[in-house]
């Protein structure tokens, strides 16, 4: 088994060496090295605390299942009532987790809707910006007309070419920006739809589980029906035997009476 | 101890993701359960064949980013860095620490970080007063890409050009050798073995072997070295042999067209990091993953392409039969007859069908994947006559020559420019003597096809300067062919052709034959002159060869400097399986190359030497 080499001590040594070369005095150096040994306790946000607590609860649930696994599977250790109790607790927790997930998906859907709404005003702002840029170009044209009269013809042609190029570049960049924003909107919608689909997949998982339970119940019913049929067949056989015996005895009775008289 | 490189590297990565603590078997929750993974481009290539996104979730990694991307602060979660030790990455880490993006930083470098960089890291974090953010610093020794259980690549590019560049100075060559040695050291550290090193005399192979031997010796002398784990007792008895070769040892393998499934997929469709993109049925690009989880790929990767097509057909028929059986058992063909036992059977069959559906779906996906890949491959084969190229090149390598009409006919027929150039180079290498008029005719034919002949002329030049190419290739030719050619004339050419066909099917790569001799330790005129390095032996006795170093080995690591491909990998795996008892061979290289990639490097070398078309600025179109 290959293993990684811990270079933290080398790093501390490099820190010590560098601190000394930077002119740290002994007290400050000791303070810096102490920050390695005694890490500040992390300031966890309330969300992180809640998340860790939830994880701890899930761990406890896992421990509960492990502890009761043997009880659940062994027929002699528990009664049906205790088994139902275990199943009841676990199913309650499972459904509660599902409901929490559904709430979370709704919240994320709201967030994605906000993101989509934010994308649309950006387009309006873009149109306003485009109008402003058009006005600016017009005013710049008006300003340039007076100096053009004072200059020579080739310079004017060159400037016109530059203006044309600038305008074409501006149009190209504007269309590119529109395309990028459209792509962004589609990506956000796709993400929201993907999450919605995952919620539906969870719902389908529940339905499939329900179907499975019904199939198991149907199997049990069919077994019971077969048992009843077997009993009916046995009773039919028994009645046939009795009928045969009755006819046999009757025949011998008639023969006996004929012989006696 | 069986060497499984992929498994060992995956274990090391899992431990790294667990903040270098031992993995708990129960997986109990602790305070450091959520973390963020940050990697650079190179380490992303290391991770992607081994770890999937759902595996990352299992190890508690909720977010993963490239280090160069702008990242938002997540204040109460530790970050796991997995980056190469270089200056831009160190500066980026210092920037992250100064911005207090994460609660703590667990730094993992892909190989050993040198002392100056460590001091730069210390200086930066001291200046920004964020020294307390750095929690741990580790050297991981994982700087190689493991593609399959027995296949790795150092992902250095383009290695062959740098090694053979006539204008390269000693300093550049030494830097390159150090880089290769560093990568090989990472592989050995991950496997935790100290091998016996064998290599041919002279050239890059000897430089790498000598430097690696010295590196391992220095490391064994230091405290807490990486090789003590696993027990010295076991490792002293079952040490592997590390065979180091240079690309010039067997140049045609890198250029030749091959017709086995795995080499064909890599060469024609461009398999990269076990991932493949092909044109789908409806025009869109489809991406497939071909790794050890794909049982069809594992079982059939080294078959010839027609056999693979037959196997796909067989699997499809088996799948259809299973599906029909499931449908029959759960269908309504006997529904009209009411019977108790049939009802029980129906319900149980229904449950069995529901349970077997995931397996059937998975099999169907695998069959569809390989059907699509085979269809695209078949299109390329027909369009470029790859089967003809493979057969003719194989004939040239075996027989040592080709008819002039055949030669020029191929160069004027189907195939891309690169295919023709590769064919011409194989012709050049397989000929014992250079026929000047034929070579000029070949060059003229290449120019007619607008092929840049720089690579061709480069190979011609090194062939005239270096007879070792010819000797390596002539050794691979069977003696019986020479004997047949000398003793029999034209009257029994049919018998000779039949014998040649048999021999060509059984032809072994020179690399595989040499590795076999090194593993067995038998006296061999080729390998007796090879150098031996034993890092565990005393330095003064390195010249003397003990019997232990030449004994038979159970395991081998074969490393090719300057680029390798799946052809060599398949040949070595076949060799390992045919040995009795079975051997275990790991194949590694500086870079996995297709034939086109390698010929492009040859073209670069030719242009650097001033060969090729004068004033030609067009690159060969693929």
TrEMBL record, chain A:
Compositional bias (Basic and acidic residues): 129-150
Domain of life: Eukaryota
Top-level taxonomy: Eukaryota, Viridiplantae, Streptophyta, Embryophyta, Tracheophyta
Gene Ontology BP term (one): retrograde vesicle-mediated transport, Golgi to endoplasmic reticulum
InterPro entries on file: Syntaxin-18_N
Localization annotation: Membrane
Domain SNARE-complex protein Syntaxin-18 N-terminal: residue ranges: 5-86
Topological type in the membrane: Single-pass type IV membrane protein
TM segment ranges: 242-260
Organism per entry: Glycine max
The entry's keywords: Coiled coil, Membrane, Protein transport, Transmembrane, Transmembrane helix, Transport
Listed GO CC annotations: endoplasmic reticulum; SNARE complex
Stretches the record annotates as Disordered: 127-150
A Pfam family annotated for this UniProt entry: Syntaxin-18_N
Family recorded in the similarity comment: Belongs to the syntaxin family.
Protein name per Swiss-Prot or TrEMBL: SNARE-complex protein Syntaxin-18 N-terminal domain-containing protein
TrEMBL record, chain B:
GO cellular component: Golgi membrane
Tree of life domain: Eukaryota
Any GO molecular function: syntaxin binding
Spans through the membrane: none
Region Disordered, annotated ranges: 526-548
A Pfam family recorded for this sequence: Sec1
GO biological-process terms attached to the record: endoplasmic reticulum to Golgi vesicle-mediated transport; intracellular protein transport; retrograde vesicle-mediated transport, Golgi to endoplasmic reticulum
Family of this protein: Belongs to the STXBP/unc-18/SEC1 family.
Protein name (database record): SEC1 family transport protein SLY1
Organism name: Glycine max
The encoding gene: LOC100818953
């Amino acid at each position: 088994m290959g293993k990684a080499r811990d270079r933290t001590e080398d790093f501390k040594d490099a820190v010590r060496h560098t601190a000394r070369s930077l002119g740290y005095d002994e007290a400050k150096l000791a303070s810096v090295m102490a920050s390695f040994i005694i890490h500040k306790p992390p300031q966890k946000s309330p969300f992180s605390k809640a998340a860790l607590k939830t994880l701890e609860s899930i761990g406890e649930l896992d421990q509960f299942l492990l502890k009761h696994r043997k009880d659940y599977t062994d027929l002699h250790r528990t009664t049906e009532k205790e088994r139902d109790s275990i199943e009841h607790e676990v199913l309650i927790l499972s459904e509660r987790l599902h409901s929490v997930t559904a709430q979370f998906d709704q919240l994320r859907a709201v967030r994605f809707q906000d993101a989509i709404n934010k994308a649309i005003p950006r387009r309006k702002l873009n149109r306003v910006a485009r109008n402003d840029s058009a006005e600016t170009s017009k005013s710049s044209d008006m300003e340039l007309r007076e100096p053009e009269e004072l200059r020579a013809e080739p310079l004017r042609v060159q400037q016109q070419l530059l203006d044309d190029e600038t305008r074409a570049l501006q149009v190209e960049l504007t269309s590119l920006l529109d395309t990028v924003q459209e792509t962004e909107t589609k990506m956000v919608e796709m993400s929201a739809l993907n999450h919605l689909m995952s919620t539906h997949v969870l719902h389908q998982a529940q339905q499939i589980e329900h179907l499975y339970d019904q199939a198991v119940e149907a199997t049990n019913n069919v077994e019971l029906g077969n048992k009843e049929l077997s009993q009916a067949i046995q009773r039919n056989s028994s009645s046939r035997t009795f009928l045969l015996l009755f006819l046999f005895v009757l025949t011998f009775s008639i023969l006996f009476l004929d012989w006696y008289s | 101890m069986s060497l499984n490189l992929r498994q060992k590297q995956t274990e090391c990565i899992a431990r790294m993701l667990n903040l270098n603590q031992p993995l708990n078997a129960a997986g109990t929750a602790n305070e450091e359960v959520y973390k963020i993974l940050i990697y650079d481009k190179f380490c992303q290539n290391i991770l992607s064949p081994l770890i999937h996104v759902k595996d990352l979730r299992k190890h508690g990694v909720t977010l993963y980013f490239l280090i160069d991307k702008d990242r938002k602060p997540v204040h109460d979660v530790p970050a796991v860095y997995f980056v190469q030790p270089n200056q831009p990455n160190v500066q980026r880490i210092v920037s992250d620490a100064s911005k207090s993006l994460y609660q703590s930083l667990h730094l993992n470098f892909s190989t050993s970080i040198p002392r100056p960089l460590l001091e730069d890291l210390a200086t930066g974090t001291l200046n920004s007063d964020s020294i307390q953010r750095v929690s741990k610093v580790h050297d991981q020794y994982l700087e190689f890409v493991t593609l399959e259980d027995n296949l790795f690549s150092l992902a250095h590019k383009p290695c062959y050009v740098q090694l053979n560049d006539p204008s390269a100075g000693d300093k550049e060559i030494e830097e390159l050798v150090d880089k290769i040695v560093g990568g090989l050291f990472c592989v050995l550290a991950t496997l935790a073995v100290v091998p016996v090193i064998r290599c041919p005399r002279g050239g890059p192979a000897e430089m790498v072997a000598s430097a690696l031997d010295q590196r391992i010796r220095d490391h064994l002398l230091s405290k807490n070295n990486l090789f003590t784990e696993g027990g010295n007792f076991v490792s002293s008895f079952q040490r592997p042999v590390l065979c180091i070769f240079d690309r010039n040892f067997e140049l045609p393998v890198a250029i030749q067209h091959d017709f086995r499934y795995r080499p064909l997929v890599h060469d024609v469709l461009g398999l990269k990091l076990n991932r493949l993109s092909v044109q789908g049925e409806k025009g869109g690009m489809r991406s497939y993953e071909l790794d050890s989880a794909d049982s069809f790929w594992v079982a059939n990767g080294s078959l010839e392409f027609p056999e693979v097509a037959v196997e796909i057909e067989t699997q499809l028929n088996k799948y259809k039969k299973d599906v029909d059986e499931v449908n029959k058992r759960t269908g309504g063909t006997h529904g009209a007859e009411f019977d108790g036992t049939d009802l029980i059977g129906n319900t149980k069959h229904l449950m069995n069908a529901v349970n077997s559906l995931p397996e059937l779906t998975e099999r169907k996906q695998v069959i569809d994947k390989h059907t699509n890949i085979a269809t695209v491959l078949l299109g390329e084969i027909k369009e470029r006559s790859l089967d003809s190229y493979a057969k003719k090149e194989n004939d040239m390598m075996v027989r040592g020559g080709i008819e002039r009409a055949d030669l020029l006919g191929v160069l004027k027929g189907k195939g891309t420019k690169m295919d023709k150039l590769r064919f011409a180079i194989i012709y050049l290498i397989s000929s014992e003597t250079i026929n000047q008029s034929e070579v000029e005719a070949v060059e003229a034919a290449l120019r007619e096809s607008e092929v840049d002949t720089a690579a061709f002329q480069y190979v011609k030049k090194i062939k005239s300067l270096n007879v070792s190419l010819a000797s390596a290739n002539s050794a691979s030719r069977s003696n019986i062919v020479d004997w047949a050619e000398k003793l029999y004339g034209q009257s029994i050419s049919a018998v000779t052709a039949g014998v040649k066909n048999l021999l060509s099917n059984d032809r072994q790569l020179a690399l595989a034959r040499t590795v076999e001799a090194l593993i067995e330790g038998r006296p061999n005129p080729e390998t007796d002159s090879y150098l031996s390095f034993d890092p565990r032996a005393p330095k003064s006795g390195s010249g003397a060869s003990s019997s232990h170093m030449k004994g038979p080995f159970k395991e081998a690591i074969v490393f090719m400097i300057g680029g390798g491909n799946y052809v060599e990998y398949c040949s070595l795996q076949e060799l390992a399986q045919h040995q009795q008892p079975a051997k275990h061979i790991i194949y590694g290289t500086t870079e996995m190359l297709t034939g086109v990639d390698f010929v492009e490097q040859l073209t670069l070398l030719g242009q650097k030497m001033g060969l090729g078309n004068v004033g030609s600025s067009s690159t060969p179109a693929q």
